[in-house]
Amino acid sequence: MSLPPIALTCGEPAGIGPELAVAAWEVLGSDVPFFLIGAPHHLPEGTPFVEIAQPRDAAEAARTGLPVLPLDMDGPRVPGTPQAAQAKGVVAAIERGVSLVASGKASALCTLPIHKQALSDGAGFAFPGHTEFLGYLSDSPEVVMMLASDQLRVVPATIHIPLAEVPAALTPELLDTRIRITHAGLVRDFGISAPRLAVAGLNPHAGEGGKMGREEIEVIAPVLDRLRAEGLDIAGPLSADTMFHAAARARYDAAIAMYHDQALIPIKTLDFDRGVNVTLGLPFVRTSPDHGTALDIAGKGVANPSSTIEALRLAWRMAQARG
Questions:
Q1: Does the global pTM surpass 0.90?
Q2: pLDDT tens digit sequence for 196-255
Q3: Distance from C-alpha of 167 to C-alpha of 297, rounded to nearest angstrom
Q4: Any known ligand binding at 111?
């Protein structure tokens, strides 16, 4: 039995999301079946699209146009300028997507970028972003952000906090949870039966035996030792400046970094246009392009769809891995 299609949520209509959805369909067609949840009148003028009544119609519809599961949204799309009246519709698209994957009518969820301030102003959206909202909707208290490409998979243990707050936030419990969810995600979603993990230190040279900081000795190493005793294949704590060259990357399936930039700088340097944001720890597959709404170029037809295309391809492979 073939898998249901992927649900692609519209994201911020004023951003590049509508253009990316069309560009992804032009490349993928029905090879990676997906449908857009959004307002058809927000698509770029002249877009061939087919309104569908249910997700299972997406594959056939994709032969002639972008499949769209229509969602009412007030007002026209104004590229570059979010409309407060459309914020509730953006949130509703995400909720509809979660409902469809939860019911098995969609095999995975791929989300186009949202504008958090616009959602806060127009819909009272109180979540830091997609990831936290999806965790709330699916009753998943612990989720992990992974950035993935063909060249690297990396997980930041701490994410959107000031660098000065990282040492206090980096508790043994947090690190243990991040590593366990990453390991489980590699097995379930990437089909890697015995994942190899590499864990970075926090300080330069991984603390150099305590001379440059003691977090490696007092926090990181004890967690890794305990997990290794349970059978996990983990290297570290490693000096982050030697973890991301080609020979080092060949020795692990995913890297765990201690803070946001330690994780995102290497993957964005290696594969800026094709990186994919993956949320691990949810009861369904979720991916997203690794960029924002790009309001400054919306409507100009110059947005690069590579990350969205890769996000849909990866979501399809992950859904197949889950079966």
A1: yes
A2: 999 999 999 999 999 999 999 999 999 999 999 999 999 999 999 999 999 999 999 999
A3: 37
A4: no
pLDDT the model gives residue 264: 94
Q: CB atoms < 10 A from the CB of 44, how many?
A: 14
Query: SS3 letters for 121-159?
Result: HHHCCCCCCHHHHHHHHCCCCCCEEEEECCCCEEEECCC
CA distance 275 to 154: 11
Nearest to 142 by CA among 287, 283, 315: 283
Residues 171-205: tens digit of each pLDDT: 999 999 999 999 999 999 999 999 999 999 999 99
Tell me which H or E stretch contains 37: strand 34-38
* Contact predicate 86/38, CB 8 Å: no
Kindly list the structural domains of the chain, giving each domain's residue range(s) and its CATH number in brackets, ordered by start.
1-141+282-323 (3.40.718.10), 151-270 (3.40.718.10)
107 and 101 Cβ atoms separated by less than 8 Å = yes
Yes or no: say if 6 and 315 are a contact pair by the CB < 8 Å rule.
yes
Asked whether residue 277 is marked as a ligand-binding residue, the answer is yes
